[in-house]
């Protein structure tokens, strides 16, 4: 009887870690459950991610703080280890820890990164980089050039060209794009060029720094879902296994500004990419899709005190705050008030105008963007607790084989551990206490 019980337990364990050929991990930077819920309310329909069958919650604290930054959170999601804020791909001791993507690459799995920030920014860098401080982006660019990853889409070409090139942020004569071309990469910098690529290793960097916000992205910068669609075409072309990390990078920045319109539009863009991933998984049933966040930003609340937000008012908002303030000067009172009425459907009283003007005169430009964002949120009764990250758990949505393993309450370090088990590849570093069975 005991042998039968043990056999049943083994079978249940094996079945719970069914074989997964491909994994698409989508990360909404700064995306808490309320960011998702508010966007769903504004859209008037369920988001693609909320229709997945399995939902869980993960904790996000770092090794040295209950409130993580994106570097430590990205490292946890990429390696399965906690580290200190600002560190990437290193343990708090400074010891280098390989990422899941790097290990999978050694076993012939194709690797893709698709983001709307600089490709050397904290979250994408966590899947290939190893530096003491996230601001070491020139070093991270060199590490990416040595990664042999197959598909790389994002922004930040300023860190790849030598200092002699206008706009470069490098302090040397290294031309990393030329180096990568020599390794067989195709380099593209415009959406029209991206559309012509149909095979091989590709690096696409579509802006000197980050891509423009989703709400006003220029024509030659691709949307996130367009990059994801192309990445999936390229990675799946020859039928080999692949791992794709996708980040909706700018949800976080809009939440830092307490910009409800910006959060709405960035979350919508991210969800369109989720939809592309889910449609691919439906056609390729050996593909697992996992959707989560690195942390929550802003302490977003669907109320202000005991008053519920006014959805119909919010739906009238037409521009994110940073763009608005770059176009309309508060020093020009009538023009500013009329623009606020046109783009947000709100009236600004003389008292409110004097308050905003005093804030503008006492704060720097980035701080004033935040204050104006909170002012606009208050007009529709949206609440925020901070302009920074919080320690709140974040959601995990999953679809495909093994999705049930991402339910319940667990830690962000479990995400890469579970993915590795499901894909069945042995690891060469001590993420696991037990051995991993290789699927033939």
Automatic annotation (TrEMBL):
<feature type="binding site">
    <location>
        <position position="123"/>
    </location>
    <ligand>
        <name>Mg(2+)</name>
    </ligand>
</feature>
<dbReference type="InterPro" id="IPR001952">
    <property type="entry name" value="Alkaline_phosphatase"/>
</dbReference>
<dbReference type="InterPro" id="IPR018299">
    <property type="entry name" value="Alkaline_phosphatase_AS"/>
</dbReference>
<feature type="binding site">
    <location>
        <position position="29"/>
    </location>
    <ligand>
        <name>Zn(2+)</name>
    </ligand>
</feature>
<keyword id="KW-0378">Hydrolase</keyword>
<dbReference type="InterPro" id="IPR042085">
    <property type="entry name" value="Ap_crown"/>
</dbReference>
<keyword id="KW-0597">Phosphoprotein</keyword>
<comment type="similarity">
    <text>Belongs to the alkaline phosphatase family.</text>
</comment>
<dbReference type="InterPro" id="IPR017850">
    <property type="entry name" value="Alkaline_phosphatase_core_sf"/>
</dbReference>
<feature type="binding site">
    <location>
        <position position="294"/>
    </location>
    <ligand>
        <name>Zn(2+)</name>
    </ligand>
</feature>
<feature type="binding site">
    <location>
        <position position="295"/>
    </location>
    <ligand>
        <name>Zn(2+)</name>
    </ligand>
</feature>
<feature type="active site" description="Phosphoserine intermediate">
    <location>
        <position position="70"/>
    </location>
</feature>
<feature type="binding site">
    <location>
        <position position="389"/>
    </location>
    <ligand>
        <name>Zn(2+)</name>
    </ligand>
</feature>
<keyword id="KW-0479">Metal-binding</keyword>
<dbReference type="Pfam" id="PF00245">
    <property type="entry name" value="Alk_phosphatase"/>
</dbReference>
<dbReference type="GO" id="GO:0046872">
    <property type="term" value="F:metal ion binding"/>
</dbReference>
<feature type="binding site">
    <location>
        <position position="121"/>
    </location>
    <ligand>
        <name>Mg(2+)</name>
    </ligand>
</feature>
<protein>
    <submittedName>
        <fullName>Alkaline phosphatase</fullName>
        <ecNumber>3.1.3.1</ecNumber>
    </submittedName>
</protein>
<dbReference type="GO" id="GO:0004035">
    <property type="term" value="F:alkaline phosphatase activity"/>
</dbReference>
<feature type="binding site">
    <location>
        <position position="247"/>
    </location>
    <ligand>
        <name>Mg(2+)</name>
    </ligand>
</feature>
<feature type="binding site">
    <location>
        <position position="252"/>
    </location>
    <ligand>
        <name>Zn(2+)</name>
    </ligand>
</feature>
<keyword id="KW-0460">Magnesium</keyword>
<feature type="binding site">
    <location>
        <position position="29"/>
    </location>
    <ligand>
        <name>Mg(2+)</name>
    </ligand>
</feature>
<keyword id="KW-0862">Zinc</keyword>
<feature type="binding site">
    <location>
        <position position="256"/>
    </location>
    <ligand>
        <name>Zn(2+)</name>
    </ligand>
</feature>
